[in-house]
């Protein structure tokens, strides 16, 4: 967990009240960016349904959130039944879904010469099929209530392409197309669909990089620092809230200006 996850400075920057009386579902929120997003949304007043393929981590996250009524639920985003059950559980427990974040993700990095078809399809399944199933289930429920906000986690990797990530870059670019097409389909029902493309973010993944490689990459960031999980969570909070009421089908880059 990064310093920003628990740091009082980042906590103080999270605006209270933006999501009062709103119910938010976040997939893959058992750890990492999703967990911090759950915390930021809860700090801003939301009831959060924390979903993860790992039930224990989902329940742990839900238990750590400020406020009451949060729920930890098992959900495999690649399963139609599982995603549908998550939408039902959230509707039943909280009376309806206002915000749904498709955040669950995996990587299977390898150069193409060594990448198997299984490595390729596993990544496409979790990101593209997972986001599609989530967007479909959430928008169906939201349109019944007159609106809602869906946030999809893409990546700068889907914009510029990364060697060793042909599967992940394809999936993250696919999420952008899915976001724009879905936004056009459901706008007339008051449902907004947007995407976030994080860049270099302080997570377990970047902490595992050799320090010199990490420093070189940070040197390419115009704002001169690595991003925090809370930087990403705040973009999600903005897209989730009514502050972004006139914004749909867009992609917000949370990259400190790298790769613009
Ligand atoms: N970490 C970064 O720097 C970075 C940068 C750009 C984009 N992203 C994207 O942000 C999202 C979160 O990344 P992270 O770094 O927090 O990842 P992470 O690996 O720390 O967490 C991902 C979570 O998703 C869950 N998950 C995996 N497969 C699942 C499935 N089939 N169903 C439900 N849950 C599943 C995992 O159990 C885990 O809790 C991902 O979509 C990732 O691609 C991350």
Automatic annotation (TrEMBL):
Keywords: Oxidoreductase. Residues 22-203 form the Ketoreductase domain. The keyword Zinc does not apply. Belongs to the short-chain dehydrogenases/reductases (SDR) family. InterPro entries: KR_dom (IPR057326), NAD(P)-bd_dom_sf (IPR036291), Sc_DH/Rdtase_CS (IPR020904), SDR_fam (IPR002347). SUPFAM superfamilies: NAD(P)-binding Rossmann-fold domains. The keyword Signal does not apply. Pfam families: adh_short_C2 (PF13561). GO terms for biological process: fatty acid elongation. The lineage of its organism: Bacteria, Bacillati, Actinomycetota, Actinomycetes, Micrococcales. This is 3-oxoacyl-[acyl-carrier-protein] reductase. GO terms for molecular function: oxidoreductase activity, acting on the CH-OH group of donors, NAD or NADP as acceptor.
């Amino acid at each position: 967990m990064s310093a920003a996850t628990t740091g009082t400075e980042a906590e103080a920057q999270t605006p209270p009240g933006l999501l009062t009386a709103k119910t938010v579902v976040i997939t893959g929120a058992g750890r990492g960016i999703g967990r911090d997003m759950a915390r930021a949304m809860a700090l801003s007043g939301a009831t959060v349904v924390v979903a993860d393929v790992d039930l224990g981590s989902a329940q742990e996250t839900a238990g750590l959130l400020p406020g009451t009524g949060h729920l930890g639920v098992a959900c495999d985003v690649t399963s139609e039944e599982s995603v549908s059950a998550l939408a039902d559980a959230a509707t039943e427990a909280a009376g309806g879904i206002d915000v749904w974040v498709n955040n669950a993700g995996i990587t299977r990095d390898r150069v193409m010469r060594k990448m198997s078809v299984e490595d390729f399809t596993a990544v496409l399944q979790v990101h593209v099929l997972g986001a599609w199933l989530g967007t479909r289930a959430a928008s169906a429920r939201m349109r019944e209530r007159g609106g809602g906000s869906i946030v999809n986690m893409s990546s700068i990797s889907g914009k510029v392409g990364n060697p060793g990530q042909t599967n992940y870059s394809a999936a993250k670019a696919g999420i952008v197309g899915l976001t724009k097409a879905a936004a056009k389909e459901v706008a007339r029902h008051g449902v907004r669909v947007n995407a976030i493309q994080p860049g270099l973010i302080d997570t377990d993944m970047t902490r595992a990089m050799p320090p010199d490689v990490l420093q070189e990459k940070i040197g390419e960031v115009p704002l001169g620092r690595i991003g925090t999980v809370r930087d990403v969570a705040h973009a999600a909070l903005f897209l989730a809230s009514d502050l972004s009421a006139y914004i749909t089908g867009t992609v917000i880059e949370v990259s400190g200006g790298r790769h613009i």
